[in-house]
Amino acid sequence: MWSMTPGRGYRVQNGGEPAVVNQAVSGIPEANPAVNSAAVRQSTRPDGLQLSLTGAWKIGAAPTFQAFATTEATAVFIDTDGVTEWDSSLVNFALQAHLHAQAHQYHLALALPDGAQALLTLALSVPAQKQPAASMSKLAQLQHALSPIRISEHLGREIQDLLAFIGGLLAAFVQTLRGKARIRMADVLRFGYQAGPNALPIIGLTSLLVGMILGYLGAVQLQEFGAGIYVANLVTVGMLREMGALMTAVIMAGRTGAAYAAQLGTMQVNEEVDAIEILGISPMQFLVLPRVLGVVLMLPLLVIYANVLGIFGGAIVAIGLGITPLQYVTQASSSLGIDHIGVGVFKGLVFAILIGIAGCRAGMASARNSEGVGRATTSAVVTGLVYLIVADAAINIICQTLDI
Amino acid sequence: MPSDITGQPADVTAPTHDAHKTATDMDTAPTCDGKKSAIIEARNLTLAYGDRVILKDLNFDVARGDIFVIMGGSGCGKSTLLRNLLGLEKPTQGTVSFNGENWQSASTEARRNMRINWGVTFQQGGLISAMTLAQNLSLPLELYTTLSVSERAEMVALKLALVGLAGFEDYYPAEISGGMRKRAALARAIMLDPSLLFFDEPSAGLDPLSSRRLDELIVSLAENLGATVVMVTHELESIFAIATQAIYLDNVTRTLMDRGSPAQLRDHSEHAVIRQFLTRGATPKTDEEP
To answer: What pTM did the predictor assign?
Structure first.
């Protein structure tokens, strides 16, 4: 009689109750290869190949079918009369034999214990999902993925999707200006509040430190030429034109852009975006535009705030170097120009649009599962930072060309 | 005493919709081939993600007034079909028409007009999490009616009361249970008294009692609003309790395998897999597979 106790060994008994042998350790039955180990005796018979299985068939101590696979025999007969114990390894042997016989179209006669036969039937009850044939090796697949054509195709699709998203956003904005869009001002204010006032502490701290870093960096070099007083100019111009806007935008990309991606991605998972679309509301107007407007309204203001704190941070360093506060303020004022302030604020505006687009686009394109939301959040930050750097470089080149 | 399709005494409090007639009654229910006209016509629908075909060559009609169930095993493409019917995804080929109007070739305005007549509840409910129930329910009214704020509030209160959520106006979706969220989503779906209601797994994740109550609510609302219901589910109790017509999607052949009333399919389908599905895997009466 054959019996089966999950997680334990199985054993043949002559008409008696099943006995459990070899108590499982860590879910894998212990094998005792010295006594009665699993074996396959191979012999030929007039009508094919005979495989006689004997011994205790235990996971980790049983032969695999591949060692006996043959395409020369027209029939294979497998008997298990000599099997004393068995577990999944026997069923696996039988399954591999079945699949091999099916693939090479020869006759297979299997005489399995009842329990093993039942498990084999269960394993074969649902046809295997047909996998697309791997037409290329892994190396070839890698080469294909990294080929210039493939990369340019991917890049082309990305640019196309990005332009479509920007077009949709612009259309929604124009419709809002014409009073035809469904946008909730309460949402704009809420997202603006989240992006602006809530970010003041972190922006303040980082800007102060960036100002100090700029101050130290300049002081070391400038003092060598006896021009330490120009630390004020360096910090002021550096913060106003570059670091105030860039550092604020970097923080906002990680904070607000990621939050937008996570919010919209979660809404995709919860089918909220579908529900909004079914209600006849444009998700671009209802979900994306308020978020983008929120960050666009706040980022330029945050840039001004960051500039002030950055210049103050520079002052702390300058005072430490023996420059009086009055000297610092006088020197800093001399380098304050509307063009510097304007460039920084303009950068802030552009960066805000890019952060909003990167975050919202990633969220709207998120897959409908938790992994998808995670990927969307990462994508929002990474693409946001790339957009920022590219845009910053482009604006600097344009300013240089226009002598601003 | 009349008995229901499971052979148990019928619940006297059950809704009186056609769907709650006996199996014999359902067998004689008119189909869109008979007296009823089709509100949805799907023709040669093939749905795929890239090279992966989800469903192919689907042809079916949904008759006006029916409670039409799309059923099948896990992963057979039920929800994908629903998303295609709702226009949230584009079929690879084929067409879907609503009241004779082809969705695929309809203008944006025409699609919008069609959608006004729909109410949809998604598997997750689809309530906007940042808005209270009142705000969620008000949305369709704000969009498509000229009701004043107070009139909208009254309508919201009415619909919430209809689904047993009176007084929950100021709650956020996260503050109520899963069953209540489903009912709130149903309330939003019926805000404009739609002629077509779509449900994606309405009973999923609910306890048996809540599930039964939701079924009764759906039937009651559909009957009283005169709406046609299209529902995706694999809950046998729901299928037998409320469906008048059903189609079975097969996840091996990726086709529509059979259609009919649930009782017809259970007792007379020529496909053993359908009979097994509708008897929870019990041995079907006839075993031969055509």
So the answer is: 0.71
List pLDDT tens digits, range B128-187: 988 999 999 999 888 888 889 998 999 899 888 888 888 899 999 999 988 889 889 989
B97: CB partners within 8 A, 6+ apart? B40, B41, B43, B103
Nearest to A258 by CA among A194, A175, A176: A194
Assess contact for B75 and B49: CB atoms under 8 A.
no
Q: With H, G, I as helix, E, B as strand and everything else as coil, classify residue A83.
A: strand
Comparing CA positions, the residue from B248, B191, B192, B190 lying closest to residue B219 is B190
The ipTM of this complex is 0.73
Whether residue B88 and residue A278 make contact (CB cut-off 8 A), yes or no, is yes
Listed as own residue / partner, the contacts of A322-325 with beta carbons closer than 8 Å and 24 or more positions apart are A322/A228, A323/A228, A323/A229, A323/A231, A323/A232
Say how many Å lie between the first and final Cα of chain A, rounded.
93
Q: What letter would DSSP give residue A242? A: I
How close A182 comes to chain B (CA, Å)? 8
A255/B119 Cα distance (integer angstroms): 36
Amino acid present at B190: I
Q: Nearest Cβ partner of A271 from B51, B124, B144?
A: B124
C-alpha span between A169 and A285 (Å, rounded): 8
